[in-house]
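Form 7-S
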Amino acid sequence: MRNKFIHYSLVMAWMLLFCVPCVTVTYAQSFTVTGTVTDSQGGIPGANVKVKGGTAGTITNMDGQFTLSVPSSKSILVVSYIGYTPQEVAINGKNKLDIHLLEDTKTLDEVVVVGYGVQKKSHLTGSVSKMDINNLTDIPVTQVDQLLQGKIAGVNIQNSTSEAGAAPQIRVRGMGSISADSSPLIVIDGYPTPDGLSTLDMADISSIEVLKDAASAAIYGSRAANGVILVTTKTGKASKPKYSVKASTGLKWAYKLHPIMSSQDYCSMIGYESVLKNKTMSQTEEAFGLIDNYTDWQKEGLNSSPQIHQVQLSVSGGKNDITYYISGNYAQEDGIMLNSNYTRLNLRSRINAKLSKRVDFSLNLAPSYTKTETPATNFMDFYRTPSFMPVRHTAATSALTGKPIGSYARGSDFSNVTYTREDGTTFTPSSSPFGSSNNNPRSLMDTEERFREDYNLQANASFNVQLMKGLVFTTSNGFFIKYRQNNQYRDYAAKKDEESAMGTYTNRLYIDLLSENTLNYTGKTGKHDYSVLAGYTAQTTSERTAGIVGLGFPTDYIHTLNAATSFDLDGTYTQKYRTAMMSLLARATYSYDEKYLLSASIRTDGSSLFADGHQWGYFPSVSVGWRASEESFLKQFGWLNLLKVRASFGVTGNNSIPANSYYDLLYPNNYALGEGNGNLISGLAKTSETKSNNRITWEQTYEYNAGFDLSILNNRINLTVDGYYSITKQLLFKQPVLSFTGFNNYWNNIGRIRNSGIEVELNTHNIRTKNFEWESSFNISSNFNKLLELSGEERLISTGERNETYLAQVGKRAISFFGYKTDGIYKSQEEVDAVPHLASAVPGSLRIVDINDDGVINDKDRTEIGNPFPTATWGFTNTLTWKGFDLYVMIQGVHGLDVFNGDGYFTETKKFNRNYVKNRWISADYPGDGKTPSFAANGGVAWEFTDYLIEDGSYVALRNVTLGYKFNKKQLKKIGISSLRLYASGQNLFYIWSKDYRGINPEARKTSGSYSSPLINGYQSGGFPLQSTVTFGFELNF
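Output:
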């Protein structure tokens, strides 16, 4: 568009150029008029103001103001500026005019960043989305990833946890792998970073593009199978120094908590149930009513007043031959849960210099520091703990248990305790009413610290050398260094180590070196436009990790290792590895008469992750486009600005596997047979975990894409539609092996998976007037996957922590929940006896369906019971501006997916939660709704995976609302300020989800341990509550 920061000397020169002839044509009866030329952002500097049919004219100053002598008070002014619709304004005797120009998007051709260069958006032949980053700096999040949610069709952002500083999961066009990493490649200022977007601040970002189809991403070869996200940071412009200060502060709170019953409510419920059953209450349940205590355990696990603070300072400017942009950012975020905290401090500097007419130089430096504190336990440990148990022993519970007042209470404290009834009788339950597993989660939080610190430095220097007209050589060399320290200390009171304090310390040093060198030639001959790119890249990474566990700390006041009295050798280790990759790449683009477009690329990567003979992968692409709107038979339609049809094919790769996958690892071990006399022999042996495989090679994704771009009504309505079909071959998978081999698994290429879908993006400029503008953006996408081949197997079953099972079956979606279907509950013993059932089935337990009608309930009755993948994701944003006010509203939704509510597996979780006891079965005479089982009579089904625990995970979220006000520039100029804006922003303010969903966070997913596997997806248990946030901030420029 235009440059809002034109150098003042240039403006003055143009003013002189136009003012001189203006003076020479001034008439004796001249009329002087003043005015201001503005757009939606304020005054436009350098706008042309001329008298229609005459020679008098001038340009506006830095504030968009002008003064002009005209021949007559009835003269007509013609006001114009590049990128805006020219406007004719009749003076009609007025001495002062306010002229508002509207953007003429018909004359603009936005430049889009692509791999190793830029292209005109009108000439793109692949599927590339450019994210509108306006308003995003106000949103109260510390992770840039979260800002992508709902903004781009085909990009699914999953906020699997509300933990402070946690990065969300990003998927572009579905699940591209069943075992290797499915995350997109992140490229920041041309550097493929292994650390994602975590160290970026939104205020430093100039643009974000997503390369979604293989034709666009193939130039990145083996790392682009899951899409590419390109981030370009801000640069300085030739001007006086410009300073910017942006700061915000806000509060957070839990959007919703579990409806946990109080002590009194629970006892009343159990007492009422006992009356209905005509039975006496069990001594264990009776004991609850005699413990005089109520603790809101959910609140005990939450921060009392979590806050979020962000500050960003920047300075930019320079001269014609050198420009700079320097910024510093500070972010501090309290998690919604106790002991969850995130702190980030990052600096960024970007210097561009013109060393000569042919040589340009650029230097990027980005050091950062982050500290992340994590809770010692999950949220479930709080809401499953009965409210009868105190955090610390009170006088009443101390008298009952004999434990000191103020000491942390535990479930085991209430074992073998004698309780006294109101009538004076006593009893001693055979076990603690809390159970031996009811440890105190607050004691864990108070007595264990966990935090990690990351020190990062990314640096990149590049030279552009113009060898001849149209031919540019670029060399870019840089590095990324990360040093991470993990610290964990448990004191004497921690449940996991009551006998001895323990400290665990690990560190990791990661170094990535990258050199990229390209030659790029662009030319034009008549109606032929063409460019050719060729390049060579080399990259090496190394990593060293070490860990040590100290025991027997004599005091909890000293956590350093030198205070430990002994060390756990099993927890002490060191590791190191090094990998390398070398690549050749080429790309050619061609257009004829701005109508017919062609692009082709190829990249070949050689990776040390694979053995000789399998190291090289080849990734070609080709795409075509037709700008039909440029044809003479369509140009007659004035309302049609652009109609472009596109089609592409490309191949991308994935090599995201461990560095040791094709060779065996050795580790110290004892030989089983020893010397034959009982004496063991120590030596080196192959690890029993993973067997080597020197035949593994790249995953390769073959993708077809077709789409069109449509702009009408002076580009006020813009529509982009894409459809794609991709097949990933040679799927990398950690395949189990028989135990007699001495190994557990090995990496192998085992099958194929298909992804297909459709994406729609619609942007509209609904209203554009002098004082009011309203713009909308809507996107929606659907993705469908199918497993096509599994190395000769028909299906693969994976198991989670609660014995829940996940099915990957050839011919069906990549993952399905796999278990038993239910048909309500058994209301009576007669119903149990009338149908096939588990031997443990009793009245009140779930009725399992005999799927194969063989009269037996067994594993053969398991079937697909849910789908963890959404069928549709969408986002809808509206931006309204009126005079100095602006309002931004974003709504985002996900539909058609299921989640497994793991809380339903835990009796302790269910029995105090109203969602699980409401309308439950009590007896044959009081069967409830016929669907909700008795928590006391699961009939063995509690440990079976059924659809009773599968719930609709769809939701609609009011993701963000931001209201701002920008002060009048004329008033601010008097005190030396360029602009000042105040704003208030709210995040996650309102949700709508299915009545079927009994949890508190439909976005939550467990992703650690076995749940890090792509084959296990959709499990919820112990997730943090959704967090809502409101912040207030300002942005000051001077």
